[in-house]
Amino acid sequence: MFESLSEKIDSALHRLSGRNKISDINIAEAVKDIRRALVDADVNYKLAKEFTDRVKDQAMGQDVLKSLEPGQLMVKIVRDEMAALMGGSASEIATGTGLQTVLMAGLQGSGKTTFTAKLGNHLKRKKGRKVLIAAADVYRPAAIDQLKTLGEQIGIEVFSLDSEQDAVRIAREAQSYAKSNGFNYLLIDTAGRLAVDEALMREIASIRSATSPEEILFVVDSMTGQDAVNTAKAFHDVLDFTGVILTKLDGDTRGGAALSIRQVVQKPIKFIGTGEKMEALDVFHPDRMADRILGMGDVISLVERAQEQFDVEQSRKLNKKIATNSFGFDDFLEQIQQVKKMGNMKDLMGMIPGVGKALKGIDIPDDAFKHVEAMIRSMTPAERSNPSLINGSRRARIAAGSGRSVPELNKLIKQFDDMSRVMKMMQGQGGRSQLMSMMNRMR
Question: Domain extents for the chain?
Answer without folding.
Answer: 3-85, 100-283, 302-441
